[in-house]
Write a structure and sequence with these properties.
Strand content of chain A: under 5%
Helix content of chain A: over 70%
Shape of chain A: globular
CATH topology of chain A: ABC transporter involved in vitamin B12 uptake, BtuC
Radius of gyration of chain A: 18 Å
Low-confidence stretches of chain B: none
Number of helices of chain B: 10
Number of strands of chain B: 10
Shape of chain B: globular
Bound molecules: adenosine-5'-diphosphate, magnesium ion
Distance between the termini of chain B: 31 Å
Number of domains of chain A: 1
CATH class of chain A: Mainly Alpha
CATH architecture of chain A: Orthogonal Bundle
Mean pLDDT of chain A: 90
Number of helices of chain A: 13
Largest sheet of chain A: 2 strands, antiparallel
Order of helices and strands of chain A: HHHHHEEHHHHHHHH
Structural class of chain B: alpha/beta
Mean pLDDT of chain B: 95
Distance between the termini of chain A: 41 Å
Oligomer: heterodimer
Chain lengths: ~290, ~230
């Protein structure tokens, strides 16, 4: 029972990662793997600004998020948009994004070094007791952030012109263009939103544990599993899928050992791709990507 | 209203259209007919800036709009109904219309919406429904509706009858006439249902192998079965 509760408590970062992946997959029409580096950079930017430049967190975090959002816009404006103009399909863009990830990963390791860094000094984490369940402060904050992200993203997608346009592009980009929507601009926004969410996620994970140059790939993988299992266009499905992944990993660690965490995530991914590619609620993943 | 002069275009290096000259006169319905694969859709796409024009020019109300993007065209009074009556099928009927009216103020949007509900009362009843669940005829109406929302002066339509039953084709042609006469819209329409479209259009062009093969009044063509057969051979 404790494992299930711990799994749920720990799944807030999966929610954030899943939202980031889903927005990217749906909004820009392919899975931009460079998002992996953005998770990492979200943590490292805060590290630079807060630990090295001694800015307070409430200044450092918004700057870090903005920097990642700008990177997301640059990916679209400088790289993917020109490639699409040259008739590059989703698979070509996916390959290019692998290259982009490798470059960014190399730069991160070059600048920060391969060693592990921390945003907050180690030592026992503060925690509190609610209804007999022990929850760390950072878990609580991460949940608050994840819920805020879910609510504001849902409102944006349902209630604003930009959000409705983004959903139109996600549903049928060609028809959206024929209706007078500027695809490059909407994709740039989608990329900025996805990268902002990734930066927040990377930072929250960095607060909970430590930073390393390759941390982003694992988060990205978790996010992909959640996005697919949840259905790439359903916020509620993503929360449910995050629970599923969190519980499965915690129970898995308890039953068979922590080295199996990624295997468990991969098993969930395969099961969903084989038997329920549309996720709990959403549309078909293949249709969403191609 | 819309003038196309000496237009060449194609896909990649493959040329599809050769020296197309065409005019859609203000307040009229102009039809484009021709066999499958002759380049009718390609012509509309080039006129609407969805594929690049290689040679020649497109004019709208005497302004050169060659290779302008679709946002510019929508904001300046041209909208497009693509082939297949496509709708944003994961979104509600109302949201589909919001996409059509994306550049309108709230007030203008309401005015246009009221006009549209009058024309398509079935859509009003289903406004909250997911548009993927609509029937073929309703989807067709919604794709007209999306294009009507910005209150355009000119509508480009690509085979709105595709996949409709004969009864629904008749209904669609009625709507088309209403849009033209009561709403005062100029229409340039590609159609395969030749018999039906000849009844309602004011001028007809036929495209064959990427070239204009006929331009004239529908009356002449209606009575000349040999000519019609030749155009589709
Ligand atoms: N996206 C495309 N890429 C390459 N060739 C195309 C594309 N779309 C259409 N074509 C080709 O252009 C020609 C004209 O097509 P189209 O304009 O769709 O014909 P129509 O609408 O008259 O049936 C056809 O030979 C078709 O194969
Ligand atoms: Mg066609």
């Amino acid at each position: 029972m404790q494992f299930i509760i711990n799994g749920i408590l720990a799944s807030a970062s999966f929610v954030l990662a899943g939202l980031a992946c889903a927005i990217i997959i749906r909004g820009i029409g392919f899975f931009n793997l460079a998002l992996g580096a953005i998770f990492t950079l979200g943590g490292y930017f805060v590290f630079s600004l807060h630990v090295k430049l001694l800015l307070p967190l409430w200044i450092a975090v918004p700057i870090a998020i903005s920097l990642c959002a700008v990177l997301g816009m640059l990916f679209e404006a400088m790289l993917f948009s020109p490639l699409r103009a040259k008739q590059a399909g989703p698979s070509v863009l996916l390959l290019v994004s692998i290259g982009l990830y490798i470059i960014l990963y190399g730069l991160i390791e070059l600048i920060y070094g391969p060693q592990v860094e921390m945003i907050v000094a180690g030592g026992p984490r503060s925690s509190l007791q609610i209804l007999g369940i022990r929850i760390t402060t950072i878990q609580l904050v991460t949940w608050a952030v994840a819920i805020a992200a879910c609510v504001s993203l849902s409102c944006f997608l349902k209630l604003t012109k930009g959000g409705v346009a983004l959903r139109a592009v996600a549903t049928d980009s060609e028809l959206a263009a024929m209706s007078g929507i500027e695809l490059p601009r909407i994709r740039m926004y989608a990329s900025a939103i996805g990268c902002s969410l990734a930066a927040i996620c990377g930072f929250m994970i960095g607060m909970d544990s430590d930073l390393s140059p390759n941390m982003g790939m694992r988060i990205l993988f978790g996010g992909l599993v959640v996005a697919i299992a949840g259905g790439v266009d359903s916020v509620f499905g993503i929360v449910l899928a995050a629970f599923l992944l969190g519980i499965a990993q915690h129970v898995g660690v308890w039953k068979i050992g922590s080295q199996w965490q990624d295997t468990i995530a991969f098993a969930i991914l395969l099961i969903f791709l084989l038997f329920r590619p549309q996720g709990f609620f959403g549309k078909n993943f293949k249709k969403a990507i191609l | 209203m819309l003038g196309i002069k000496g237009l060449d275009t194609g896909y990649g290096k493959k040329q599809i259209l050769y020296g197309i000259d065409l005019e859609a006169v203000t307040g009229k319905i102009t039809a484009i007919i021709g066999p499958n694969g002759s380049g009718k859709s390609t012509l509309l796409k080039a006129a609407f800036g969805l594929i690049p024009v290689w040679q020649g020019k497109v004019f709208f109300q005497r302004a050169d709009i060659t290779n302008k993007n679709s946002k510019f065209l929508v904001q300046n009074g041209i909208t497009f109904v693509p082939q297949g009556n496509r709708v944003f099928d994961e979104m509600s009927v109302l949201e589909n219309l919001e996409i059509g009216g994306l550049y309108l103020s709230k007030k203008q949007f309401q005015i246009e919406l009221e006009k549209l509900w009058q024309l398509f009362p079935e859509l009003k009843k289903r406004q909250k429904q997911n548009s993927g669940k609509l029937s073929g005829g309703e989807k067709q109406q919604l794709s007209f509706g999306r294009a009507l929302m910005p209150d355009p002066t000119l509508l480009l339509m690509d085979e709105p009858s595709l996949g409709l039953s004969p009864k629904l084709v008749g209904q669609m042609m009625n709507h088309l006439q209403k849009i033209n006469r009561e709403f005062g819209k100029t229409i340039l329409i590609v159609e395969q249902k030749v018999r039906d479209v000849l009844e309602i259009c004011d001028h007809v062009y036929s495209i064959k192998l990427g070239r204009i093969a006929y331009s004239g009044s529908p009356q002449n063509l209606k009575n000349d079965t040999d000519k019609l057969r030749q155009l589709f051979l």
